[in-house]
Automatic annotation (TrEMBL):
Residues 21-32 have a biased composition (Basic residues). The keyword DNA damage does not apply. InterPro entries: Low_temperature_requirement_A. PANTHER family: BLL5714 PROTEIN. It comes from Micromonospora radicis. This is Low temperature requirement protein A.
Length: 491
């Protein structure tokens, strides 16, 4: 008390209601504000500081407490990414551990770039199966699709755990993108050994690179419990590389069976150990997870049919070819509407309502697993559409020659697979499936004999007319309505 009588300014400088905190005699009271949406401290702006802040020179300036964060005077702190953990202050940014749990509710441009490279790889599967299409090539194409799909899905789970566009992680994700790109380039030679480097071995090494980078990043940003799951999954993942590399060296049917074994080993480790015993991968942002899958499906719908139509060239000016291309566009729009207007909102609602391990399971079942038939259906339908264009372009008759069995099965069977995949997503979301829903999905298979008996232009026209009817069919269930706040991919 004697000290306070001698120095009354000490009492005046104490903040009201916050004992022990002393402010500078000339400092203003700090504005109250909330942290930014992801909860990051460094680089966040005070929401209370809007345009024309009193005493500030620039409009929209951050609060004074944010201008000079702790460690600002230390070397390298000016380059420190805003979304790294506070333990990174004072270190070089490339040596800092990124903070876990920073998944955004929306997809970043860098992730869209990553998905574009992935979809380009999928379009190369169409090129692999279409020279010319036959049952063996179509089966091997499905095997390649499943391997690449689950490799991409791992990076989506990583993006849900932390941001992948900060410099330390972005560099390694770019390495993974290079792996996808190399795999896309050698995809048509996945079972052929030609001049130069070995195509199957390059494809296998690209896949190993994708998986190794994913495991390293996931373990780096993960929490202790998550790291335990990653280490157990890594055992199965590394074991699957052995048949993958051996099959690439042997080639032929040995390569087919060994690569199928590699897929079974890795998927068994993920579904059997991580999902069933350890509670699955943690899903933190259902909005981000659903939107990312929706964007990839939309990109696949557009890019696959675009790649199929590139081979037409100058022949597109012919009326039959142009008609087939327009019908193919209507077919794409119908497939988009059937899923995104009716089924996608249901899946998003189920994922948003779930909590804990149930949310993890819905994410793994509805999206990581349930969306695979949708993508496979798009790839096969694009392969059939490519066969239609080739038939209409080469034939002398206006409608083109009739489709062969591989082309007809790809076109009609791919559409049926897409519809069945949409039903699977609805069923795994907890909405159930009726017999009439299943019957609607298998109708394209019943139309296949008719499609093979008519010219190719009439075959795709018949299938498109059926899909348009499904797309414009009135909804009878309120479950198909778009929920409030639905993602932009459902618009």
């Amino acid at each position: 008390m004697e000290r306070l009588r001698q120095h009354p300014g000490l009492l005046r400088d104490r903040l009201p209601g916050r004992p022990g905190q002393v402010r500078h005699p000339h400092a203003r009271p700090a504005r109250r504000g909330r942290p930014d949406r992801a909860g990051e401290g460094l680089g966040a702006q005070d929401r209370g500081a809007g345009p024309g802040c009193a005493g500030d020179l620039l409009p929209g300036c951050p609060a004074r407490s944010q201008r000079h964060p702790p460690g600002a005077g230390q070397p390298g702190s000016a380059r420190l990414p805003a979304r790294l953990s506070r333990t990174a202050v004072g270190r070089r940014w490339w040596a800092a551990r990124p903070a876990a749990g920073r998944g955004l509710p929306t997809v970043t441009p860098f992730e869209i770039f990553f998905d574009l490279v992935f979809v380009f790889t999928l379009t190369r599967i169409v090129a692999f199966m279409g020279k010319p299409p036959d049952p063996v090539a179509m089966g091997r194409g499905l095997l390649l699709l499943t391997l690449l799909w689950f490799a991409w899905s791992g990076y989506l789970w990583l993006g849900n755990q932390t941001r992948v566009d900060v410099p330390p992680i972005r560099l390694l994700v770019l390495v993974a993108m290079a792996g996808f790109f190399v795999a896309a380039l050698v995809m048509p030679s996945a079972w052929d050994v030609g001049p130069g480097l070995d195509g199957p071995l390059l494809l296998a090494l690209s896949y190993v690179l994708l998986r190794a980078v994913h495991l390293a990043l996931y373990h780096w940003v993960g929490e202790p419990v998550l790291r335990l799951r990653i280490r157990r999954f890594a055992v199965a993942s590394v074991l699957s590389w052995v048949p993958l590399l051996v099959g690439a060296v042997l080639g032929g049917w040995a390569q087919t069976w060994l690569w199928a074994l590699a897929f079974v080993v890795e998927t068994g480790g993920q579904r059997g150990v991580v999902q069933n015993r350890l509670g699955g991968w943690p899903l933190r942002s259902p909005e981000y997870f659903a939107e990312r899958h929706g964007l990839v499906l939309i990109i696949a719908l557009g890019e696959s049919f675009l790649a199929a139509g590139v081979g037409v060239g100058v022949m597109v000016t012919r009326i039959p070819v142009l008609t087939a291309a327009v019908i193919g566009f209507v077919l794409i729009a119908s497939l988009w509407s059937i899923h995104f207007d009716r089924v996608s909102p249901v899946a998003q609602q189920a994922l948003a309502r779930a909590r804990g391990e149930r949310r993890n399971r819905i994410g793994a079942d509805v999206y990581s697993l349930g969306h695979l038939p949708l993508i496979a259906g798009v790839i096969y339908t694009a392969l059939g559409f490519e066969d239609v264009l080739a038939s209409v372009t080469a034939a002398e008759s206006p409608g083109g020659a009739a489709l062969g069995w591989p082309g007809g099965v790809a076109l009609y069977g791919g559409t049926a697979l897409y519809l069945l995949g949409s039903l699977l997503v609805r069923y795994l979301s907890g909405c159930g499936t009726r017999v009439n829903h299943l019957a609607v999905a298998v109708v394209p298979l019943l139309l296949l004999p008719v499609g093979r008996a008519v010219p190719a232009l009439a075959a795709i026209g018949l299938l498109t007319a059926y899909l348009v009817g499904l797309a414009v069919l009135p909804r009878r269930s309120p479950a198909g309505r778009r929920p409030a706040g639905a993602s932009a991919t459902d618009r």
